Amino acid sequence: HLKSKQKVPQGAKLPPGPAGKPLIGNLLDIPPAHSWLRFKEWADQYGPLFRLSLAGREHYVVSTEKVANALLRERGNIYSSREQLPAAVKLLGDSLRPLFYPHDDTFRQSRRLMHRLCKEGAAITYQSTQILESTRLLYDLIRNPEDYEGWLMRYSSGLIFRVGFGKVMKDNDDPLLKRLFAENHQLERVASPGAYLVDTFPILMNLPDWLAPFKRELKALHVEEQDIFFGLHEDVRREVQQGTAPDCWQKTYIEHAEEYKLTTAHGAYVVGTLFEAGAGTTAAAMMSWLLCMALHPDELRKLQQQLDEVVGNDRLPTFDDLPNLPRVRAVAKETLRWRPVTAGGVPHLSEKDDVYDGMFIPAGTNVHANQWAIHREEALYPDPETFKPDRWLEPKYPTYREPLTQYPNLQNYSSFGFGRRICPGMHIAERSLNILVARIAWACDIKKKTGSDGKQVEVPLYDYVSGFNVQPKWFAFDLSARSEERWQVVKEAYEWEMEHDPLKDRRGW
Ligand code: HEM
């Protein structure tokens, strides 16, 4: 049903775009990494909706919030599918259903389950876990700032470990965590179109296994993924039977399974997906925030000033402080604008022929909402290359909104996608980013390093890893407690949290 009639209707035309080569189209014009930068240049040249053709497949790139909302949100009945990569689908088949077929009941039930676990009312109940894990983060970050990537990963995955499975992550070299990340890394590779040649040339799929090593690789990958998710699910199921399971997503699912018409494998997969989608993204956003602070000491100072006024010197910020900390929320929001985590957007697939603003969009088009460009639209974000939290705080900017006790917030922000596919973890992510920004800025100074020659060691503006989650490559900067008193506050909070940890007897240390 995805086949377009491919005839451009009368009065409409195809959108503009760079000219391609015969057969392969624009395939070779797309840089293998950081493609959103090239896409932004093309948007400047061709406008907010331009067309690429990749080996016979249509890829349209959207570069303003207006067009993204008009298509992906307002016409969500057409634009809510995902491309089913032939390599993945042929080999993995049914197990991908929860996330791929928007008109299939499995998809609806999966999103319903995710909503139950992650909606705002639920997210509020995870705040105490965010307080606990953020206190652990501070305690270790101050003692060993060089390993900031590891501590942020432990925070974001440790949070989901606790609320998702009732398990505690000890260190950032937890063996299960390593397995999950190795797996996640592979999955991102498989999920990026073109990673497997077979997605570009489906005919390769017909090769026998011995000529097609990628087939074995994919199968092994999926077996490992199922194995991990199923293992976690089984652990919780056993505990539910024994009456010892702590409250967690798996337990909620197991106890209410009959309300969701999902197979056990799909249910386990849905909860596993929340982990896969939520851990790396949150950590990546915070790595970019550290970069922003190292680059903008004046912004960190303003942030600390507000924190000192609202919170004082004697205690760490809590969730109750956040309505009074608009600058914390503005800084988090501006970080996601300036260095978006899913920079090129997560593509949606259209399922019906459509016309927008006189331009024809055939069924089966991959629509990319390029956040890098969306967040740099001059009219909305004047001086877009400048990191400027004030644009969310001062009435003279187009993005300002009243009242400051509520705005800025991250709800419906383009960073979290659009319409029926909008990030279900948004409420949890928003709380994580806000509380981490508040607590790290309250407790720590962040600045560029001074080299042995007495000069500042520069921090690169944009030296990012290539991959699905966009995070700065490890960089050198100084982080330390703002004072001995504040370090004492952190230590005491840490001891209190460890003592009152509801999963204390499950920690194993
Ligand atoms: C800073 C943190 C995060 C960012 C920037 C982010 C961003 C996104 C984006 C852009 C999408 C695609 C939306 C679309 O297709 O229109 C997405 C999907 C998703 N996110 Fe997040 N996310 C974050 C954190 C989280 C967390 C904490 C969770 C889980 C607790 C989560 C779970 C998911 C899931 C399961 C999907 C797939 C939804 C679907 O395809 O239907 N995310 N996220």
Automatic annotation (TrEMBL):
Mitochondrion: present as a keyword of the record?
A: no
Cofactor field: heme
Pfam families the UniProt entry points to:
p450
Q: Which UniProt keywords apply?
A: Heme, Iron, Metal-binding, Monooxygenase, Oxidoreductase, Signal
InterPro entries on file:
Cyt_P450, Cyt_P450_CS, Cyt_P450_E_grp-I, Cyt_P450_sf, Cytochrome_P450_fung
Claim: Transport is one of the keywords in the record: no
Where is heme annotated to bind? C423
Q: Cross-referenced SUPFAM superfamilies, in alphabetical order?
A: Cytochrome P450
Gene Ontology terms for molecular function: heme binding; iron ion binding; monooxygenase activity; oxidoreductase activity, acting on paired donors, with incorporation or reduction of molecular oxygen
What family, per the record?
Answer: Belongs to the cytochrome P450 family.
Name the UniProt record assigns to this protein? Cytochrome P450
Where does this protein come from, organism-wise? Oleoguttula mirabilis
- Top-level taxonomy: Eukaryota, Fungi, Dikarya, Ascomycota, Pezizomycotina
